[in-house]
Design a protein that fits this description.
- The protein is α/β, with parallel strands linked by helices.
- It folds into 2 domains: 238 residues, Rossmann fold (3-Layer(aba) Sandwich); 183 residues, Four Helix Bundle (Hemerythrin (Met), subunit A).
- Helix content is 41%, strand content 10%.
- The chain has an 8-stranded mixed β-sheet with strand order 1-2-4-3-5-6-7-8, sandwiched between helices.
- The longest helix is centred in the last third of the chain and has 30 residues.
- Homodimer.
């Protein structure tokens, strides 16, 4: 007998007052997210821009290194109605900047309202912004300049260049970013408040670091999203780990699973089985992150409310053994073959692109995000947070030491009381919300909670199926942007008068 599964959420937005799994879940998401996309103008021409380049130093903080290179940026100034018009600046994260322009419709939608110039800046070492060309990621001597600090300094130089135009000399700058890009936006406002007048930081897990947030939050929030769709679903996923191990304990079982799951590469040894299970963990986390109420093609083609659609196949609590794995394969097809055009299930990362390697290095060196699971309070396998082991693995892989406390030393984590003019928005469906700012830091650094929101849904373009809480969050963004611009213009007026 199948259990009826109902998804219920309250429609509300409110303000609050003041191991290996880590690498796989963070790295593989970014690998998939940043798959190379074609020029947005070839996709119906919805968002139009000009592609330009800007020269920056390889090292902003050294007098010894003289090398320079070009970063890409996208610009649209067609809505600029007057001199010193606002600049809406997207702080590019880990991938091709055109992919972010394609998926940040909110900026494009409000730019005409504000008469703003829209800028999307590409992060160094991603897309086509490579300091040393194809040699950029061959060894620590070349990739050692891949840090958030250097990237933010690139953006500061670009903004100063844009303001060197007499018509933009006093233009207020509002930075936007989602996920790692949201982290960059918030950090940029904290570090350079004289350059940036405000920041919209969506789904920015700036607290997901050692000793600051619980490493279990990602796995537990993911599990909660699946449980909300169907109480049986995460229980069957949890049960499936032992079933997979038992079925694949012999060659006959490996053959059965390979054929029934239509794996592109058959399972022939225990390493392949481990890779399959790691792939499943990645899929579960990714579906939860992009659990949007409408069809998307952000990472892979997915249906509306993909967690619910996935869990529709896992509602029979009596499932076990091979019948459970058969049902799990049908659920998995929601992610791997929603279009019905995929001939086999590929569990490997076949992209082989530099963006994937660059983020893997950043996750090992500086953006050392803490994620773990216990297999009891969540639906994942038990994988404790082992900072020593992960650091050793990173050293072997990249030849560079990890700096797990660098981010908190550089930008602050436990004490952010001096932060101003930042909106931290987090959707409670998003597994990364556990590492986000969920309370007001000050009167002007506020938290917006979106109960029905997945990963930075508020930065996406508006959709008829957007929940009311998402619509309301965007209204708050507009409100604060207006306040920041007004505040900046008043300050400039007083300075010019005196």
């Amino acid at each position: 007998m199948k259990q009826k599964c109902i998804l219920i959420f309250s429609v509300i937005i409110f303000f609050l007052s003041p191991p290996a799994l880590q690498l796989r879940l963070s790295n593989r998401f970014h690998i998939r997210q940043m798959k190379k996309g074609r020029h947005i103008n070839e996709n119906g021409g919805k968002y139009k821009y000009e592609i330009k380049t800007f020269e920056v130093p390889v090292d902003h903080f050294s007098f010894a290194v003289k090398d320079k290179f070009n970063i890409r940026y996208l610009v649209n100034d067609t809505w600029q109605r007057e001199n010193n018009a606002p600049i809406f600046f997207y702080t590019g994260n880990e991938g091709d900047i055109e992919v972010f322009a394609e998926n940040t419709g909110f900026m494009w939608e409000i730019a005409p309202e504000f008469g703003a110039t829209v800028i999307f800046a590409e992060h160094r070492y991603y897309g086509e912004s490579m300091p040393f060309g194809n040699k950029s990621l061959i060894d620590p001597a070349h990739w050692g300049y891949l840090t958030s600090q250097q990237a933010i300094a690139d953006y500061v130089d670009l903004i100063e260049y844009l303001r060197s135009d007499e018509n933009r000399k006093h233009s207020p700058v509002i930075v936007f970013g989602g996920s790692y890009g949201g982290m960059l936006s918030s950090w940029m406002r904290m570090k350079y408040p004289h350059i940036v007048q405000g920041a919209i930081a969506a789904s920015a897990p700036i607290l997901q670091f050692t000793g600051v947030s619980s490493c279990e939050s990602f796995a537990r929030i993911t599990t909660s999203s699946y449980r909300a769709a169907c109480d049986t679903c995460p229980k069957l996923i949890q049960r499936s780990w032992n079933v997979i191990t038992n079925v694949t304990s012999n060659d006959e079982g490996k053959k059965w699973l390979s054929e029934n799951w239509k794996l592109c590469q058959p399972l022939t040894n225990s390493t392949h089985v481990e890779e399959l299970q790691a792939f499943l963990e990645d899929v579960y986390g990714t579906i939860a992150m992009v659990n949007y109420p409408y069809e998307t093609n952000f990472i892979v083609p997915l249906p509306p409310n993909p967690v619910k659609v996935f869990c529709n196949h896992l509602s029979n609590k009596s499932l076990t053994g091979k019948p459970l794995l058969t049902a799990l394969y049908k659920a998995l097809n929601v992610f791997t073959n929603y279009t019905g055009q995929t001939n086999c299930t590929n569990i490997e990362n076949a992209s082989g692109n530099l963006d994937a390697l660059a983020w893997d290095y950043q996750a090992c060196s500086e953006i050392f995000i803490t994620i773990c699971s216990d297999g009891v309070n969540d639906m994942f396998r038990s994988e404790p947070w082992d900072i020593k082991k992960i650091s050793e693995d990173c050293l072997k892989k990249h030849g560079a030491h990890s700096h797990p406390y660098m981010v908190c030393k550089e930008y602050g984590c436990k004490d952010l009381s001096t932060a101003t003019n930042i909106v931290f928005s987090n959707g409670l469906l998003d597994p990364w919300s556990g590492g986000g700012v969920l309370w007001n830091l000050s009167s002007s650094a506020t938290a917006v909670i979106i109960p029905e929101g997945a990963h930075h849904i508020d930065l996406r373009g508006s959709n008829p199926r957007d929940p009311y809480s998402v619509i309301l969050a965007r209204k708050y963004h507009r409100y604060y942007i207006k306040q920041w611009i007004k505040q900046y213009k008043q300050q400039k007026k007083r300075i010019l008068v005196t």
